[in-house]
Amino acid sequence: MYALLGALLLSLIAFWPSLSNDWTNWDDPYYVLDNELVKNLSADNLIEFLRTPERSLYHPLTMLSLAFNYTLSGDSAYAFHLTNLLLHLLNVFLVFLLFHKLTRGSWIVAGTVALFFGIHPMHVESVAWISERKDVLFALFYFLAGIAYLQRGTKRFGLWFWMSLFFFLLSLLSKPTAVTLPIVLLLFDYWQDRSDWKRAVLEKTPFFALSILFGLITIYFQSIQAIGDWEQFSLSQRFLFAIYGAGVYVYKAVFPYPQSAFYPYPGIADGLPAIFYIAPVLLTALMIFAFLIRKQLSALLWGLVFFFMTIAINLQFVSVGGAITADRYTYIPYLGLFFILGCGLQRLSEGKASTFKIATGATLVFAFLLSALSFSRCMVWKDSKTLWSDVISKYDNVPYAYYNRGIVSHYDDKNAAAALSDYNKAIKLKPDYKDALYNRGILKFYELKQVESAVEDYSAVLKSDPNHANALYARGLAYFYELKKPELALSDFDHCLESNPQLHAAYNNRGSLLFNHFKQYDKALENFNRAIEIHSSDGQYFKNRSFAYYGKGDFPKALKDAKKAQQMGQKFDPAYIQKIKGTASES
Q1: Which terminus in the chain has less CB density within 10 A, N or C?
Q2: What's the CA gap between 58 and 215, in Å, rounded?
Q3: pLDDT digit string (tens) for 186-210?
Q4: Angle between helices 275-292 and 235-254 (to 10 degrees)
Q5: What is d(CA 121, CA 131) in angstroms, rounded to the nearest whole number?
Q6: Rounded to an integer, what distance in angstroms lies between the CA atom of residue 326 and that of residue 329?
Q7: pTM of the model
Q8: Quick check: 467 and 444 in contact, CB under 8 A?
Q9: C-alpha span between 14 and 408 (Å, rounded)
Q10: How far apart are CA 518 and CA 297, in angstroms?
Q11: pLDDT at residue number 47
């Protein structure tokens, strides 16, 4: 019990700074702040969570948890961070129970695994990043599934077995990474000396069936959006990336430095660094060694197999995203490595007391050091600026980091010079970076008044993506209001609305163009009507439609829209109001 309480307390202290953190611009807007489904939870849209993937992943239970969080606390970052931390602490408790059952009562093993699981710096990303709620949530049900499975006893298909399967389903609905559980359950059988292996495998048919189903769902969604270009790297390079990643994770279990939110792929123009060729040799030697001494130290082989089986799904043999490794991928796999340490301490406890005390003291010192690193690492996730500045300080060749820091300087800090510098760096590293080009264009147009240069950026976006609705709209505005090229503006607005028929601001501005330059009042009215139909809370749309009705000579409708626009805060020339009042009364 003291071991569990110590693990919980030290975990709480290590992750306490996360409660002071804000949102970041890395997926948090997409998952929560700008997600209307999350912000408007209701019985009617519950079904939408079940059929809507987010960021190429199908994890409806995670999205529901975020929606419940928002319903209860709004956009309070503290509330979301508190939920993540509480889930992590609950996971520490479940890890203790799981390994206590697995080892049939060893509090040393269970306490060691729970402690290092709770305080390890490589787990900060899973806890301190609001959008990574899926890690702490899927792990919760993953552990419950494991505990229920171990609880089943001799009743192969009793209540606990089906409870395990149910928790497994919930884990899969939280994050598809849970597909590894059937293999883990077989490892549990092996550790507890189960002999009827044919039956052990057959009874897990429902688990494997769920794994295959969710695996296919994940492959389908990620093949559409997230999986990188297969031709970018050769088959041999991908193999080396995967083995290198596994080696990095093993290394960082002991030496978690440097840490970054983003680890870029290496440049391959001059060949891969030597470590990519050394890693397979070292890992192969480690596995051979573990196999050879399996009778003397069975925990080493078991822990390594657990680690490799659970990390394999996240090794970048198929590139998903732009990072070669990610700290969050270790949340479950590190249990295998911590298990090795716990079993080592258990073995020492059976020998000389002095040796055990020294080993325990060294382990606790190591744990306190890791806790201090986690405490410090949580502060890196304080906000978007600290996060991306940290990435840049470690890797100065990540365009995504410069772009995201530029977004902060641009829209939050209103620091045009800093934003321009970061956008420029991002585009220098990645010349076809559409998001950076578009936002640099916005910065140039609105803040720096460099209209022609802004149009060049929009055009660069459209060169690689001709149907980019926002770039078409932005360039149309520049042509219309600044460069006085109405035909080009009209063409861009037309193309924009073909690409995105719901962009109400484009209807409004196309209506203004048709009204002011082309004097096509009926077509202008059609556009203002459409803008108001989509978005009826903008007074400017009613104001513009009032002018269009006036131009057509429909004064009563012009007056009605003018009054509506005034109620919504729009200002009019008093002479215009008097004129339409007079002409409306005459009509």
Answers
A1: N
A2: 10
A3: 999 999 988 888 888 999 999 999 9
A4: 60
A5: 18
A6: 6
A7: 0.91
A8: no
A9: 28
A10: 84
A11: 84
- Model confidence at 318, pLDDT cuts 50, 70, 90, reads low
CA distances to 34, 40, 63, 78, 500 from 37, in Å: 9, 5, 9, 21, 20
The answer on pLDDT for 228 being more than 70 is: no
- Cα–Cα nearest to 466, from 495, 494, 504: 495
Helices (H), 255-311: 275-292, 298-311
Task: Supply 330's token pair.
Answer: 């270790």
In this structure, what is the dihedral angle of CA atoms 393, 399, 400, 403, given to the nearest 10 degrees?
Answer: 90
Which neighbouring-strand residues pair with 264? Answer: 323
pLDDT band for position 249 (cuts 50, 70, 90): very high
Which amino acid is residue 197, in one-letter code?
A: W
What are the tokens at 158? 């009793």
Tens-digit pLDDT profile for residues 454-490:
999 999 999 999 999 999 999 999 999 999 999 999 9
Task: Give the whole-angstrom CA distance, residue 63 versus residue 47.
Answer: 12
Q: What is the pLDDT of residues 319-377, one digit of tens each?
A: 666 789 999 999 999 999 999 999 999 999 988 999 999 999 999 999 999 999 999 99
Contacts 24+ apart (CB under 8 A), 165-170: 165/206, 165/207, 165/210, 167/141, 167/142, 168/141, 168/142, 168/207, 168/210, 169/210, 170/61, 170/141
Helix axes 159-174, 133-151, angle to 10 degrees: 170
Is residue 229 pLDDT above 60, yes or no? no
- Only one residue has tokens 């290496």, namely 266
Amino acid at position 261, single letter: A
Architecture of the domain whose range is 502-587: Alpha Horseshoe (1.25)
DSSP assignment letter at 130: G
Closest CA to 405 of 262, 279, 531: 262
Q: Which pair of tokens denotes residue 469?
A: 């609705």
What SS3 class is residue 227?
A: strand
Whose tokens are 């990474």? That residue is: 177
Average pLDDT, the chain: 92
Closest CA to 185 of 144, 146, 225: 146
Domain boundaries, the chain: 2-263+332-375, 502-587
Helix axes 60-73, 133-151, angle to 10 degrees: 120
